[in-house]
Fold these 2 entries.
Entry 1:
Amino acid sequence: MTSAAGIIQSVIDASATPESLHWFARGLADGTVSDAQAGAFAMAVKLRGLPPEARTALTLGMRDSGDVLRWDLPGPVVDKHSTGGVGDCISLVLAPALAACGVFVPMVSGRGLGHTGGTLDKLEAIPGYTVEQSEAQLRVVTREVGCAIVGATARIAPADRRLYAIRDVTASVESIDLITASILSKKLAAGLDALVLDVKVGSGAFLPGADQARALARSLVDTANDAGCRTSALITDMNAPLGGVAGNALEVAEIMRLLTLATRNDDLWALTVALGGEALALAGVAADSQDGATRIEGALRSGAAAERFGRMVAALGGPVDFLDAWQSHLPAAPVQRDVFAQTPGPVAAIDTRAVGLAVVALGGGRRRDGDMIDPSVGFTGLATIGDVVGAERPLARVHATDDTSAVAAAAALRAAYQIGERAMRGALVHERIA
Ligand code: URA
């Protein structure tokens, strides 16, 4: 007879079967498995690891613990997932750019976690934009606009919802097998044909080391492909905040400048094009990733991606004139001032995690579940590695609700920057895993 204790023992003995892992995932969702058993299971997986077939079985079991969407659309269903970072607002540009290239993007996204920003928190900086949508509305907007960025309903991968909360309090978050099953159970429940992954590496990444990033990318790519979803990953740089801006409304403003071709941040542009090229090739609508990249560039340059973004915002409750009048809709912080380095010189290194935590301390992220977010705060013009800072060039401009938090954020930012040796910024895309 199947029992939770027997399955935990089989994980320790490396003999867990796909059927037993499906049973465990179902038990997480329906309450047959207790919190203590879930915690013991998570720790057994963290310490012993799962063989590839078992990892895929756990992922599929967790995916099938709730609703799994099926689509009947005149094009492939595609998505992108990032392991999270600071200033990473790529999803906001990429989803409409992909839609403009003829694929459909039901992007079920998350909120900020720790020092990392969350796509849903960024979109909620837009007045009226509603991330909690019914499955029916997700279907309508995906079909009519081509993309819809929304939050997961309680019916998507409920086994993950429960296991993640237990991992969080049992020191078992940092297991590549469990991270893989957690991320992919939610993504695969959206019924995708293809998925491109942006696995971050560096001081602001969830797993900072290059070996860890590579192992996570390999695990995600292999498991998703085994599960029948064409998937590849780019390992990309998070040794500096992406795009030089961190903060919810501030990042939305940055992507509006990019989409409307007012100013173009080279890193945001290049990463959107690289990930989009991969996604279009995986989806089979481009001959290869280079052809895909050219198509994404075309969608950005022609304004087609901007037009899709404006329609998505309006369809999900935001202002109908957001594309033309975004400046008047986004909140602005009352205190804005430049932050200068204590000593001038080139930026040698950045503790990007500390920059993300400084945004959280300003009120731009959550310290605990349920905290309110102030969308207006953060940093703009963040210097990157190799920039020479001094009296003419600040480290960044801080946007804060009051003087006290601005002063604290300035001190935190100075501490996050190492000035001294001349250094070169590393490549934006470190590696491709397919
Ligand atoms: N994000 C997730 O969704 N799950 C994890 O386990 C880690 C990051």
Note: The CA atoms of residues 331 and 376 lie 5 Å apart.
Entry 2:
Amino acid sequence: MAITELNKSQSRNEAQGEQQQLSEECQELLNTLPKERGWRTQHLYLFQGFWCQPKEIQAIMSVQRNFIAQDSDVVLATIPKSGTTWLKAIAFTIMNRKNIPVQNDNHPLLTSNPHELVPFLEYKLYADNCIPDFSTIPCPRLLATHMPFSALPQSVKESGCRVVYLARNPFDTFVSIWHFMEKLRPESFGCLSFEEAFDMYCSGVVGFGPYWDHLLGYWNESLQRTQKVLFLKYEEMKEDTNSQLKKLAEFLGLPFSIEEEKGGVVDEISRLCSFQTLKDMEVNKNGKGAIFADSENKDLFRKGVVGDWINHMTPSMVDRLRNIMDKKLSGSNLSFQLL
Ligand code: A3P
């Protein structure tokens, strides 16, 4: 058999294997959903208005049916590659700073990847047909999701649970997704060029996308329920991390005291959670499986800058994405710093 044929049949087998792990209900549902070529799986499906992989759909259905939010919960929400790892590190450190001082030699971030400390609802807790045992997770529970606001369980929207959304400009987010997918895509799925991926992204076909809908869902909610939904931007966190840390701590009901500020606690958290500090940790240099069993933790830390898109996109790509953003975000008052 020629290599391409072999690859095609291998990827068909992988796709079939993927489907076999799904419940009958989910398999039946997939047959009714629009689908497009995926970035690292055979297909992405349009489920409840956003694109996702079969296993994610099954887990999300389970989250929607089974997860009951508590008033003290904090849910971190992002689209993939917009700074989730960073937000998890920061929120975990702020929320636990009384019990685990930042300078503690045993601080969990020194030996664990942030994804191990703040579990995803759909990738971890409710993945693979599991129903989590929450009695082992202390309150207040710190959880994460990539789901759009519209897909969150009703109890998250109606309880006192707080939601923190981190947004990143769609140019850098695309470049980051593309690089990450290059690392994750099985060889048998063939190549996905930067141009092809960009087309898919612009059409909204990207995990949990269209990204503009994801952004607007949380943005609008943050304007209406300011006490319950906080909207942060990656670029502002890069520009002035300390002031964003203070904003987050206040939103969480855990403001920094004057003594903490004078004692340099905010600076210490910024430093501990910075790109370079986390990237240099042994667990993040050589560890594996923080998100997916087959992924290396080092791939979560690429460049960590604002404006890397300029090194990748042609002027016509820039125009196209700029036009889409202008159109989709028009009237929302939501804008991004691009460089
Ligand atoms: P780049 O690929 O542009 O470098 P996510 O955590 O949602 O997967 O997002 C990954 C992106 O966040 C990557 O962007 C990664 O380098 C960057 N990142 C990871 N940790 C960071 C940190 N502590 N500070 C700033 N950026 C970080």
Note: The pocket of adenosine-3'-5'-diphosphate is lined by residues 78, 80-86, 172, 176, 179, 273-275, 278, 300-304, 308 (CB under 6 Å).
